[in-house]
Amino acid sequence: MTSRPGVRGLDRRAFLGLGGAVGAAAAVTACGGPIVTKNGSGTSSTIKPPDFSGVKPASKITFWTDNPGSSQQVTQQIIDKFTARTKIQVELVTAGSNYDQIAQKFQTARVGGGVPDLIVLSDVWWFRYYLQGSIIPLDTALAAAEIDPDDYVPTFFNDYRYDGHQWAVPWARSTPLFYYNKNHWRIAGLPDRAPTTWEEFSEWAPRLQSVTGRTGAQHAFEYTSSVNTPAWVDQSMLWGEGAALSAKDSFTLTIDAPEVVSVFQRIQDNIRVNKWAIMAGSNEANDFSAGAASATWGSTGSSVGIQKTATFEIGVGFLPGGSKVRQPVCPTGGAGLGIAAQSSPAKQLAAARFIAFLTNAENTVTFGEATGYLPVRTKVDTAALRKANPLVGTPLEQLARTRSQDWARVFIPGADTAMTQSITQICNSGADVHKTLSQLQEKVQGLYTRQVEPKIS
Amino acid sequence: MTASILQSPVRPASRRRRVNRSSPAGYVPLILSAAVIVIPLLWMAIGSFKTSDEVVTQRLVLVPSHPSFAAYQTASELVDFPRLFLNSFIVTFVGSLVKIVLAITSAYGLVFVRFPFKRIIFLGILVALMVPSQAALLPNYTFIASLGGVNTYWGIILPGLGTAFGTFLLRQHFLTLPPELLEAAEVDGAGHFTRLTRIVVPVSRPTIATVALVTIVTEWNDYIWPLVITNSQQMMTLPVGLTLLHNTESDPSLYPVMMAGAVLVVLPVLIVFAVLQRQIVAGLTQGAVK
Fold first, then answer.
1. Is B186:B195 a contact under the CB 8 Å cutoff?
2. Helix (H) or strand (E) holding A221
3. E strand map for A158-305
């Protein structure tokens, strides 16, 4: 019974066979990784927005979204109204639970077929689609759908402008806010407002930390967790010190510049030396809602959820300024809508009509009430919005102090992920700040040289 | 791996059990390991009855102060659970059934039928076992999509049907069956089909139940493939449907809702496990042939 083939120990031949099997497995694995490839049309000089003259809108389109801000129900309501008015059906597809999953699915669909007509695009993804030629320039589509670009909030709208064309329309847009726990503020004897500068907060924070016995907090402040793209808000601190990840409107990287190093050194010191801050383990919005952090920063898209959960009074304020720049230091974030290049002109036109409806003055407010996102139009009645979400006044005013994000983060594929890794090392492992940032600079530079430069020159 | 754990304590366990019964110390590891597995599930179930400020809190809330089905209500408003259940059931039932039949027949062929290049074919199956399904995602998608399989049941089921794991496990098990058993049947004039259905399958019930359990759980929980191949909410399976409950922005108020959704997904698997568990034990006691 002992020496049957297959149950005996691994002899030499079997081992070699196994080795071959592993090799074969590796070979099968090698095909089909996610690589950014350019798909035929769409080099910068040859871009031509599609011509919609004589095109009739299709009667049915597909819309892929990850329902940012738990927006499934409100989006469906808006769709129902749209269908009733125009007879155009919109199939709402939840194509993932975050922007990366949507992107992965969109990539597979581009190769295998079944692309949606309309897709949600996050700040760090749309440029990749532009590079791949998988979304159309919207100039003619917007005109055909009678959308007036001037009626959109300029920072939001211009975020999607590149190479003389418009590539997306803002939809679920947000800005970060400074959130604070009013009870903790009271116990620490602080004035009832957000700090105006980080210097001011660095005086307040030790006082908050000294009363944690009474407030029940663990830390005075929590920095963004690694699952929530910390580089997004961290740009704000850089801008306050006159620094940036890349020079304005260019791909010249400045990640290892001395000012950047000193900002991240201060973050690391607040965590490891002063010990009044920490990088959130999983989610700063949770910890803040639970009272474990006296203050944090985060997207306005979280404000509705935080208010539902927190049992204390929440204060919000503008992001604090730096020693060199008081404003604008606030980045904008969130998602916009793009139209797939592989879709037919009739469907593209229908999609553009739907964009016009979804982001019109009335619906952008309805959407904002349900989710906490900001209206993307200028001529809106914000009274209803302020009533539904008492915290929304602050981000609405902060809109005037926003600044478009650094290209290094939003335009270079994979850069944001690399930044998250480096920031996590700096905050959690106490890595040498200068060394980590030099390595990051090198890495992002490599990503640029390989994936962006060949396609834009 | 799970299979070998479930399967191995055939004989030693029955002997050792008597020893353990007399000493309460034997229960300690048992209770500990059960706790490690059960407590998170229990915590999830309790969480689904809490309010969000009882989930996201620094206090330890063991018993919700106002237990309610509100989270379940919200979850079912967001997601069409009956439809998702139906989809998951169809996919899991058909998928597992075909997988198990394929695994049994192919393993039988590999062990009891004489034909050339058997080892090479087996090696090929081992190769398939080593390729993570994620790696085959894109080629599979391209292929299935070109056949028109997006948003269809067969599109979800087909690519997973070749189950190297089941074939491998059953082959190894069939090799341990005493050849005399089959030789006797062959002398009596039994063909391959009779030998398979009347002898090999009945005596291998524990192993087949193990393969079935692992297959059903894998099919039920499969996420990435159904996510990629379905667009329509009408065709989503339960794990994919759960993404509808998740929020891209950090939303602490959604935790009870997500836990309610997870409880609904876990329950059927627990039931299947309870049923098949008995099968495995029954198979162990009556499977002895000599």
1. yes
2. strand A219-223
3. 161-162, 165-166, 169-174, 176-181, 219-223, 277-279, 293-299
The first and second tokens of residue A148, run together, are: 């007036």
Are A350 and A88 spatial neighbours (Cβ–Cβ below 8 Å)? yes
In A, which residues are within 8 Å of B137 by CB distance?
32, 108
DSSP state of B62: S
User: Is CATH 1.10.3720.10 what the domain over B91-237+275-285 is classified as, yes or no?
Assistant: yes
Return the residue in A70, A179, A300, A314 with the most chain B beta carbons within 10 A, the one to mutate for interface testing: A70
A244-272: average pLDDT: 95
Domain boundaries, chain B: 91-237+275-285
Start-to-end C-alpha separation, chain A: 70
Residue A392 CA to residue A383 CA, distance in Å, equals: 10
φ, ψ for residue B104, nearest 5 deg: -65, -50
Residue A385, classed as helix, strand or coil, is: helix
> What's the pTM value of the predicted model, to 2 decimals?
0.78
Residue of B59, B224, B248, B257 to mutate, testing the A interface (most A Cβ within 10 Å of its Cβ): B248
Q: Are strands A219-223 and A330-331 parallel, antiparallel or unpaired?
A: unpaired
ipTM of the complex: 0.72
Q: How far apart are the C-alpha atoms of B172 and B126, rounded to whole Å?
A: 12
**Which residues of chain B register pLDDT less than 70?**
1-22, 247-248, 279-290
- Which residues 135-194 in chain A show a CB within 8 A of chain B? 174
Measured distance CA(B259)–CA(B145) in Å, rounded: 33
B172: closest CA of chain A, how far (Å): 7
